[in-house]
Amino acid sequence: MPEVFRFLTAGESHGECLTAVIDGVPAGLPLTEADINADLARRQRGYGRGGRMKIERDQVHISAGVRWGVTLGSPITLVIANRDWENWKATMSVGAPEPGTAVKQVTRPRPGHADLAGAMKYGHRDIRNVLERSSARETTARVAVAGVAKRLLAEFGITILSHVTEIGGVRISPDLDASWEEIRRRAEASEVRCADPAAEAAMIAAIDDAKAKGDTLGGVFEVAALGCPVGLGSYVQWDRRLDGRIARAFCSIQAIKGVEFGLGFETARRPGSQVHDEIVFEAGGGFRRTSNNAGGLEGGVTNGQPVIARAAMKPLSTLRTPLRSVDLATKEAVEAVVERSDVTAVPAAGVIGEAMMAIALATPFLEKFGSDSIDEIRRNYQAYQDALKSW
Q1: How far apart are CA 148 and CA 154, in angstroms?
Q2: Which of 40, 107, 160, 203 is the most buried (most CB within 10 A)?
Q3: Is the CB of residue 224 less than 8 Å from the CB of residue 307?
Q4: Which residues, other chains included, contact 199 with Cβ-Cβ below 8 Å and sequence gap of 6+?
């Protein structure tokens, strides 16, 4: 079914800018560029990032859809300039290069990247035409879009956080006992966005070791959406199930290879008596669960618990010690091309995971409570909350 909150992004990694157009944002939502820029800055941080992040200082420019700090209900346009464009004007110019300009083609695909499959699909002999758009630089625009979605959800008490639970096989303690707010505080203070100090130190050591070997590391991040009301999503059709929407959103992030909710794959290893969240009722407090193994979702619908999802990110495809490949032009055995890259981007991927969680929640929220104006949504939301009190 069509998304109420929908968007498109455009732009190449080393092009002039990244652009996003968002449709479906209600009128009357207070919105400033600062609301978006905070997460753009968070996306650029993290131990193990490469030289590109030292060049870019991502800032959004809102060019349409907002007047006097308030959304109009019309499409919103976001533009983020690429500072590195100055160094790539000849290579990435829209027009043909000047006569005599030497522009080197990329013909050595990287294993694990979109390079070869993308070139074969679109008929490109220069892999530059593939890697510029398939690059994770595109997620900058998505994080900007999510800044708008987060601002919408925050109006109704829904907040989203993330933290890294694993890098390069180093995991946080299974006994980590901390509130969500404490996890948020620790993660934002950590170089690898990890809430476990002992694991943080081991993760940094693993990143240093991989860097020395010319290798890369993957990992796992967890995203939690707090304050979601009961009833977002639906069980009546496959494409309205919220866990399916979130899984799709997470798997659209470059290098993500798996998603799980709550206990996730562990549920397959336990009997039902150790999996399902028991229901109790308290006078004045209503229904509640005694645990949250389901990750806040039952039958594709939010149940009032925090929505918790984890995603597995593979190691990045660009290695300083490159793997074997084949040159597209000569068909000779070669080493894969080495583009500027990171040792790991798991900490940044967590911020992108927050973005995709917010985007995935925006449509079912607007489906449930209306989408024309914030005042209308607020009336509908309050009426629904009042109705739930009678249960």
Answers
A1: 10
A2: 203
A3: yes
A4: 170, 171, 172, 173
How many CA atoms within 13 Å lie on the side-chain side of 264? 14
CA separation for the pair 207, 339 (Å, rounded) = 19
- The DSSP annotation for 71-100 comes to E-SS-EEEEEE-GGGGGTTTTT-SSPPPTT
Residue 41 CB contacts under 8 Å (≥ 6 apart), including other chains? 58
Region of 120 on the Ramachandran plot (φ > 0 left; ψ -120 to 50 alpha; else beta): alpha
Backbone phi, psi, residue 347, to 5°: -60, -40
- The CATH number given to whatever domain includes residue 209 is 3.60.150.10
Token digits of residue 327: 């040159």
Q: Name beta bridge partners: 164.
A: 221
Angle, CA of 200, 201 and 204, to the nearest 5°:
85
Signed CA dihedral, 178, 179, 184, 185: sign only: negative
The answer to whether residue 168 sits within a structural domain is yes
Strand partners, 236: none
Is 1 a member of any domain? Answer: no
pLDDT digits (tens, 9 = 90+) for 153-194: 999 999 999 999 999 999 999 989 999 999 999 999 999 999
Q: Is the dihedral of CA 95, 99, 101, 103 positive or negative?
A: positive
Residue type, 166: E
- Tokens for 166, please give them: 């694993």
In a domain? residue 345: yes
Is there a domain that residue 148 lies in? yes
Full domain range(s) for residue 296: 6-388
Q: What is the mean pLDDT of the chain?
A: 94
C-beta separation of 13 from 318 below 8 A: no
Alpha helices in 227-373 (DSSP H): 242-251, 346-369
Selection from 74, 68, 7, 160 nearest residue 373 by Cα = 74
Predicted TM-score (pTM) of the model is 0.95
Percent of the chain's residues with pLDDT above 70: 97
Mean pLDDT of 327-346: 90
